[in-house]
Design a protein that fits this description.
The chain is an alpha/beta fold. Helices cover 40% and strands 14% of the residues. It has a 7-stranded mixed beta sheet with strand order 1-7-6-5-4-2-3, with helices on both faces. It has a 5-stranded mixed beta sheet with strand order 8-9-12-11-10, with helices on one face.
């Protein structure tokens, strides 16, 4: 431009790009921009048309979120990954695109995260969706459900929330293949540190990035990882449904993910100590933890997870009622009474009023979630301090 710009124009257009200079930042830059400028409309058209790589608008993709997606695909051992604004958004987009939008049938684990179960039940009511629930720990029962009718999708959790039942990924992958169904595994509780479902035959791996991947309690996000066809369908969903993970959240996930292996090892080790301690407590009737020999799938856990057993412990109070649970929660001093998991700090959840509130009480009871069921997400604090805090709270029950 030949003429000098006036001050009002200069301030608006200032600092639109970083100055040139050698040196590669050790932390990836956060590119917060929603829009991307092109000096050639023809090149912009090619990017819009997926004829060349690039970025045009935040809903279509951002460099920072794309960096996270590349890292997640590498961790999960898949061709690609697409990130969403929450774990629920990722699950809803995938299940709808994979099965429901075309009238396909879904076989789903019965004891999945309560909000996902509630979503599936709502779809059955509002959309007449063909979704059936099955005990996914029983491979024969899953095979029977898959044979009962043509099935588009088998959906399970690697470690069920909150009862910590395990699914035999390799066996279920074989059953899904035989039935011609896509096999999706929510591996949020396991993380890629304990398990890579794709290496055992899963077609799709789902994570709530809100939990262990980020690990700091300051981000919501979700991801769907799989083949190129899955990524293409998920990208279309982020563009049209508008649930794409923004770059700032992606940048925070990248930051948190760098310590995932270190955090998980500490949390798994502490969780085993806490589970072992609670197992002999007079005010607890049952402790659920895959690392305990008392867990019905302990051998599967040893085989599938390589010596680590997760950072979550679930237990049932002997006095199984809301008043006792509330006294326990209110007496906690170190552990937070919070509705999430996977953070640096320890959190305790009461499923009956939070994660599984939407599930009918009789169905919760049938599954094994009582008024005395509590779930601990073990943090990285000193385990002796955590045990003392739990003991003090149990003394009030």
């Amino acid at each position: 431009m030949g003429r000098e710009l006036r001050p009002g124009t200069r301030v608006v257009r200032s600092a639109r790009s970083l100055p040139d200079g050698d040196g590669v930042p050790v932390t990836p830059p956060l590119i917060q921009s929603v829009a991307f400028d092109y000096d050639s409309a023809a090149r912009q058209d090619e990017v819009f048309g997926n004829e060349r790589p690039g970025y045009v608008y935040g809903r279509y993709g951002t460099p920072t979120t794309a960096a996270l997606e590349t890292a997640l695909a590498e961790l999960d051992g898949t061709q690609a990954a697409v990130c969403f604004a929450s774990g629920m958004a990722a699950i809803a987009a995938f299940v709808d695109a994979c099965a429901l939008a075309s009238g396909g049938r879904v076989v789903a684990q019965e004891d999945i995260y309560g909000q996902v179960r509630a979503l599936f039940e709502r779809w059955r009511t509002e959309r007449n969706a063909k979704i059936v629930f099955v005990d996914a720990t029983d491979v024969a029962a899953v095979e029977g459900a898959l044979r009962a009718a043509p099935t588009a999708l088998l959906y399970v959790e690697a470690i069920a929330n909150p009862l910590l039942r395990l699914t035999d990924i390799a066996s279920l992958a074989k059953a899904a293949r035989a039935a011609g169904a896509t096999f999706a595994v929510d591996a949020t509780f396991a993380t890629p540190v304990l398990l890579r479902p794709a290496s055992l035959g899963a077609d799709v791996v789902i994570h709530s990035l809100t939990k262990y991947v980020n690990g700091h309690g300051d981000v919501m996000g979700g991801s769907v990882a799989g083949g190129a066809d899955v990524a293409k369908a998920m990208r279309d969903r982020t563009i049209l449904d508008g649930a794409y993970l923004p770059p700032h959240e992606a940048w925070l996930c990248i930051r948190g993910m760098r310590t995932l292996e270190l955090r998980m090892r500490r949390q798994c080790e502490s969780a085993l100590r806490i589970a072992s301690h609670l197992g002999s407590h007079a005010k607890i009737t049952r402790v659920r933890y895959p690392g305990l020999a008392s867990h019905p799938q302990h051998e599967l856990a040893k085989r599938q997870f390589g010596g680590l057993f997760g950072g979550v412990v679930t237990f049932d109070l002997k006095e199984a009622n809301k008043a006792a649970a509330f006294r326990f929660l209110d007496a906690l001093e170190l552990a937070a009474s919070a509705t999430t998991l996977g953070d640096l700090f320890t959190e305790v959840l009461y499923p009956a009023i939070s994660s599984h509130r939407r599930i009918a009480p009789e169905e919760r009871t049938r599954l094994g979630i009582t008024e005395g069921t509590l779930r601990i997400s073990v943090g990285i604090e000193d385990p002796d301090d955590l045990i003392a805090d739990l003991d003090n709270a149990l003394a009030r029950v």
